[in-house]
Amino acid sequence: MLNRGTVKILLLNGKVYNIVCDSISTTAFKIFNAIIRAELIHENYILGLCALIGGDFVFLPSDLKIYKVAPQIWIHSSSNKKQPSENIAFTLYLRIK
To answer: What does the alpha-carbon distance between residue 79 and residue 23 come to, in Å, rounded to a whole number?
Structure first.
């Protein structure tokens, strides 16, 4: 059984994507790639996926599993929820490097 969690991605233009993913195995690259494809962005080398940690935007390495930057409540809730509407989302940001 997959542990599903919702990740909210906030783009530079204010657009928001809610991505439901496996909370344990999903990497920053998978999420970044999904956003780039959905937005039809071809020149993506200047963009990166960030987490807000301690008040600062921190760019995530592509091989980082997202649960390592997620709040503990998101990790635990994604494995215990039975209804998708009860998922707790945490936010990542698409920013310019």
So the answer is: 8
Given a contact cutoff of 8 angstroms between Cβ atoms, the answer to whether 5 and 23 are in contact is yes
E runs forming strands in the chain? 4-10, 16-22, 47-53, 56-59, 89-96
Tell me the CA distances in angstroms from 45 to 27, 72, 80, one per residue in order. 18, 31, 37
Overall residue count recorded for the chain in this entry: 97
Q: Is the pTM of this model over 0.70?
A: yes
d(CA 8, CA 17): 6
> What is the rounded distance in angstroms from the CA atom of residue 70 to the CA atom of residue 88?
11
> Average pLDDT in the 49-69 region?
94
